[in-house]
Specification:
By secondary structure, this protein is an alpha/beta fold. It contains 15 helices and eight strands. The strands form two sheets. A six-stranded parallel β-sheet has the order 1-8-5-4-2-3, with helices on both faces. Strands 6-7 form a two-stranded antiparallel ribbon. Strand 6 and strand 7 form a beta hairpin. The protein is globular, with a radius of gyration of 21 Å. The relative contact order is 0.11. The structure holds 5,6-dihydroxy-NADP and zinc ion. Zinc ion binds next to helix 7.
Length: 395
């Protein structure tokens, strides 16, 4: 393990089907006014909203509601939330929903007391709030597994007007103070969203795993998480009601992106950079955007990252490799990944998401390029990857 790092994660977790019971205890540490952010209505239909509002009332809180946080939250909606928070002297922002609501809540928390153009400062210029800037505390009640937003400081916002989706990872001050993870709350997630979440988890692990060649404990942790996810995903896709599988998926999602398995690593994140731009153009679920370019991306990374792809094939996919060259072993690992993606029903081309060859220049332009795991891609490489991802019919 060659890297230098510090480690701090302030988010307190409550996990399990009784975890909501702890909300009331936590609420006593915060003032009376709670901003309750939620999405398009799933929490009202499945009854979680009523449970949470009941607990807030019991705790004597004043609720400032802000529903309608859309999947892939927009800058326009962020502006609306900031306005509401500024008008109501909020003491705690409570996110009730999936990654979108959690991300959004952190974005509001960072922006309320910023005296200037927060979009420009935090997302376009990627700055951190000043040491003396007030930040509102955020807590999450998670209803969908995937992003890891419940235990990280990531906030991905879409500027719909300019077809540009961009993430900013804030410093640890914006991590949720506590998060409640009840796997039962994820049971009503539509099958397509569950699958998108599963691939988002897998890809978070791969984005960190496919960098560097040193012997690093983080990679062993990543391999264990990937094996657990593959096992549980196969069960959950066949039987979404399987609590054990759904709980493993939820827990794996948290550890896949709560900064632990990236320690001591340079990390990659180019599939996410391309995926975000695809998302801005197609509005497809985040995990599907990642899946749709992954095979073209990783086949390209295979040669420069060969030893790691061999290890991935052997350790994650149990490829024995007897009598095979390293290239053949690595390729067999990617074939196993592709077969699993097909088995659980993920899109393997961007065409399946509605992307067309006419969109390729725009998606390329919206992709932020940086030196990544094993490659240093230029816009023309992104274009090639996107063309490879259109699929046989359109490519
Ligand atoms: O809006 P509602 O009605 O609640 O419906 C949501 C939404 O339509 C629904 N849903 C969630 N929980 C449900 C449910 N439906 C029924 N029952 C439940 N229990 O699922 C849909 C998707 O929800 P969303 O929150 O958008 O999904 P996800 O958790 O995948 O979040 C996606 C966002 O997170 C960002 C993505 O870019 C995207 O904007 N990411 C955040 C990251 C981070 N913070 O570190 C990292 C990720 O890589 C990702 O970029
Ligand atoms: Zn992701």
């Amino acid at each position: 393990m060659l890297g230098n790092f510090s480690y701090y994660n302030p988010t307190k977790l409550y996990f399990g089907d009784e975890s909501l019971n702890f909300l009331k205890d936590e609420l006593k540490y915060y003032g009376p006014v709670v901003m309750l952010n939620y999405g398009g209505g799933s929490v009202k239909r499945n009854g979680i909203y009523d449970q949470v509002v009941g607990i807030l009332h019991e705790a004597g809180k004043t609720i400032v509601e802000n529903g309608g946080v859309m999947s892939n939250p927009t800058l326009e909606k962020l502006n609306e939330g900031v306005k509401i928070a500024r008008a109501n002297a909020i003491d705690l922002i409570l996110a009730l929903g999936g990654g979108s609501v959690c991300d959004y809540s952190k974005a509001v928390a960072a922006s309320v007391y910023y005296d200037g153009n927060y979009w420009d400062q935090f997302w376009l210029k990627q700055q951190q709030p000043a040491a003396d800037q007030r930040l509102l505390p955020v807590a999450c009640i998670l209803t969908m597994a995937g992003t890891g937003s419940e235990m990280n400081a990531g906030t991905v916002i879409t500027d719909a007007e300019h077809t540009f989706k961009v993430g900013h990872v804030f410093d640890s001050r914006l991590m949720p103070k506590f998060s409640i993870l009840n796997p039962r709350f994820t049971m009503t997630v539509p099958a397509e969203q569950m699958k998108a979440g599963i691939y988002d988890i897998m890809n978070h692990i791969m984005e960190q795993y496919f960098s560097d060649f040193d012997d690093n404990t983080s990679d062993y942790l990543a391999e264990g998480l990937m094996r657990s996810l593959i096992t549980s995903s196969r069960i959950a896709v066949k039987n979404p009601e399987d609590y054990e599988a759904r709980s493993n998926i939820m827990w794996t999602a948290t550890w896949a992106l709560n900064t632990l398995i990236g320690l001591g690593k340079r990390e990659d994140w180019m599939v996410h950079m391309i995926g975000h731009s695809i998302g801005a153009w197609t509005h497809a679920p985040h995990g599907f955007c990642l899946a749709s370019v992954s095979m073209a991306y990783y086949r390209r990374a295979l040669r420069p990252g060969l030893p790691k792809f061999v290890r991935f094939a052997k350790t994650v996919w149990d490829i024995r490799g007897d009598g095979m060259t390293d290239e053949q072993i690595a390729e067999a690992g990617l074939e196993a990944l592709e077969a699993w993606m097909e088995e659980i029903g993920l899109p393997l081309t961007i065409s399946e998401l509605g992307a067309t060859s006419e969109m390729v220049p725009g998606i390329t332009e919206g992709t932020i390029c940086h030196p990544a795991g094993y490659m240093n891609l230029k816009p023309e490489d992104i274009t090639e990857i996107l063309r490879d991802s259109l699929g046989a019919a359109l490519g």
